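pinning this so it doesn't scroll away 📌
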Amino acid sequence: MRRSLAGLSMVLVLGACAGEDTPTSSSLDAASFKVADAGVAGAVYLVSNDASSNTILVYPRRADGSLGDPSAVATGGQGTGGGLGKQAALVLDHNGRFLYAVNAGSNTISAFRITGQGMTLLGTVPSGGTEPISVALGGNLLYVLNDGGTANVTGFRVGPDGTLDMIAGSSRALSTAAPDAAQVGISPDGRHLLVTEKATNLLVGWDINGDGTLGHRTLTPSASPTPFGFAFDKRGTALVSEAVGGAADASVLSSYRFGGAGLVAISPSSATTETAACWVAVTPNGRFAYVTNAGSATVSGFAVGRTGALRLLDADGATGATAATPLDAGISRNGRFLYTLDAGGQAISAFRIASDGSLTHLGDIPGLPAGATGLVSD
């Protein structure tokens, strides 16, 4: 099943991998999004990252996993005009009621409320730094990763109505001023924050204090170079893609658990046999993890054991084939469907997930904006 992108530059691949509340309100065209509409079971969300007016693209998801025509909701901010090359540019809360997205060009975060009638912008808040590229949500806490200027993470408290308030004293520096950070995430137990740094090959962790500020910081070298995207399974295992500098067929997935002195490797450097592994998605039951390989136009599936041990599902590393340059990936809340954002093909690839973790390709949905980034599914 392996597909090669002949002549694709590794620099390009890794680059791809690689104030006050604003009361402005914008509502989705409810006719295309109502859960009550025939056959609509949920939605897939992306960020356009448009430099003049950033928007959320909302694709209604039918019960069979196919996607309808998208609607657009303005974020009230600006993007950068190109792909961010990071993971988790937007995040849904666990009930699917609120969505948060980065505006990397205007240094803000947008908050939205989602109902059966559509989606409404609640407002925007300053991100606490420059060029926010990734957000993480856990309980009533949200953290944003700012990768421009002097890189940092900053915390926010989420109100019952979904609005955000910055937590005083919550900003923390990363290991260096410009580490080319890729993602921020919160462990399932809410006790730890994790950031991957591509330039330093470090996994940066913090203890989360009761007031939402961050405590002790640890720096753990990644098992292989270029740690990138990651996802936690329900037991708290961090599954981290490591692109190994974009070397051909050399990418890996590693699993880690938080320990007293940082992260401890459980199943380090498990080979995908593919090129430029970047993004990671885990099924809700924690049994399977999927890695997008930007340089191979494939998805590698892994079985995840209770201890965090990893087993490649297909010997050739290609559990599914996508359009060119798959980046972000998301799994539906029911665990039945996987979607990838394919930057090179400007498309979304859709797959059905079988009980054994195998994938059935449902088709590709074309027409994405060139700079589209981030993907989540409810």
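📌 and the second one:
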Amino acid sequence: MITEKLSEDRPSFDTIVVPAHSIGFNEVYLGEKRWPNLKVDRKRLPDLKYVAVYQTKPISAITHYARIDHFEPLDRVGRYNVFFSKQPIEIEPIRFTSADVCAVQGPRYTILQLILDAKHLARAFPS
């Protein structure tokens, strides 16, 4: 169930999904409990609470999410290092299927509850 109101002018997305290769996922996301150099719309910063990860091939699924502790702005405008408050949480993989138009190729905003309720990737994002 979606608990946050979505409006056409500014949806209240609480999660950003990032694509990750195995090295970045294991060493940085899990190992260092952070995500580096993430492009985030400044207006969305107050609403974001989680970073979920879509592991690229061969996994091709959203597999974890982590609660955001804080953002560290970088010199490049709109870029942040994101630090987590705790170890990322593993979830049942939300896989890419034939029902999906495309895999996650860049950061995408959504709502954590959509991810937790999804059976395949297309259901993890608002339509």
